[in-house]
Amino acid sequence: MRDRALIVISVVLNLALGVTALVLWRQRPDTRDLPARPLRHADASTTNQPKTRVVVRRQFFNWTEVESDDYRTYIANLRDIGCPEKTIRDIVVADINEVFERRRLREIIPDDPAWWKGNPGAEVAQSIARKQAALDGERRALLTELLGSTWEPPRSQLGAMIFLTGPVLGALPAETKLAVQDIVARSIERENQARREKPDEINPAAEARRRQQTREELAKVLTPQQLEEYLLRWSQNSAQLRAQLRGVEVEPDEFRALFRATDALEQELQLQSATSAEAVRKQQERLQQRIDDAFKLTLDTNRYAQMKHNQDTVWVQTRELAAKIQAPPELVQPLYELTRAGEEEIRRIREDKTLTTAEQEEALAAISRDQADTLRELLGEEGYRKYKEAKEGQKF
Predict the structure, then answer these.
(1) How far is residue 298's CA from residue 364's CA, in Å, rounded to a whole number?
(2) Rounded to whole angstroms, how far apart are CA atoms 184 and 160?
(3) Is 271 within 8 Å of 212 (Cβ atoms)?
(4) How far apart are alpha carbons 62 and 49 in whole angstroms?
(5) According to DSSP H, which parts of 148-251 are helical?
(6) In sequence order, which residues have a C-beta less than 8 Å from that of residue 142 and are 6 or more positions away?
(7) For 18-32, how does the pLDDT look when each residue is reduced to its tens digit (9 = 90+)?
(8) HSE-up (13 A, CA, CB side) for residue 15
């Protein structure tokens, strides 16, 4: 009798489990059109064990009972173990953001811009804007489908990224690209934190040390060749070099040679900028001279003169004004010389202690009239009017 009772109990339990399995099978979510969810939490010792959808002892569940490669099932399992909705939302949003970040690195491959001149970051951003918007729309639609229209917490959108272009960086494995993005994100956060702590203080040496830390982190995940390609496109020193060479025609190999010759010197110069001790000042002058010599070796006389002009604020402003009013390029030099001569004469008059205030004002007015007459001769009446308006706007 006892054995028969045990058999009956066993049959009843098996029937109950069978009915439960059938109901769960019929109610399984539709997985069409959903990307597969990567499994990361199960360890090697449990990945081959059969999974069950029924959690018998919730207080002692195994994570493999919750994990699923289907998002709907995964969310249902999280709810089944009593996970709060906010936590479910945070988990799923972070998970899908990572999936789409990998897709973005894999699918959005912009053309390699002219990294040795101009603003390569802006060019790349323009070239991928449409693709990125479409991918982000797909990500948002998926999250809305899974979590409802109120899924989006503050600042859950995908962040900015460094575009890894070209034959070297474009071919990096996805894991390496993600590691680079993480390093860049940490670097930006360090900069932001420094500004939050001391918003009114600019410390060039501290900024240089933070940039050096970022380089050291990048060197751990990139080869020397890969690191150089990254620095050529995205480092501050390469951006500074492009600014110095603005308007100067250089070939990629020339830019690379200049970067190799000046990058380490610029780093050393920046790291020493926190002190004005005489020995350091002399060392800075020597470093600056070596940088200048590197430009002379790479550029011919005319291009070197153009590069030196780019370090002159008055020249840069004059060139921008001439471009704004569409003046011929050959007028930039006479406009610059006129502006420089006027500034020198104004400074001389203001420093002349033998002149009364009225005499100074009269002399300054005469300089202004002379400059206006010369500008009219150079530009014509209409060109002078445009130049005057553009210069007034440049002050703000």
Answers:
(1) 43
(2) 10
(3) yes
(4) 12
(5) 166-169, 174-197, 204-221, 224-234, 236-244
(6) 34, 35, 96
(7) 444 434 434 444 444
(8) 6
Residue 235 φ then ψ, to 5°:
-80, 160
What is the full DSSP assignment across 141-175? HHHHHHH-TT---TT-S--------HHHHTTS-HH
Q: For residue range 63-105, list pLDDT tens digits in order.
A: 566 667 788 888 888 888 888 888 888 888 888 888 888 888 7
Using the predicted structure, report yes or no on whether residue 194 has a pLDDT greater than 60: yes
Q: Give the CA angle between residues 295, 300, 306 to the nearest 5°.
A: 75
In 3D space, the residue among 290, 289, 236, 283 whose CA is nearest the CA of residue 261 turns out to be 290
Helix (H) or strand (E) holding 254: helix 252-271
Q: What is the dihedral of CA 91, 92, 98, 100, to 10 degrees?
A: -170
d(CA 306, CA 290): 18
Q: How buried is residue 268: exposed, middle or buried, by Cβ count under 10 Å (0-12/13-18/19+)?
A: middle
Q: Tell me which H or E stretch contains 139.
A: helix 120-147
- CA dist 133 and 125 (Å) reads 11
Tokens of 140: 């948002």
Cα separation, 163 vs 169, in Å, equals: 9
- From CA 136, how far away is CA 158, in angstroms rounded? 8
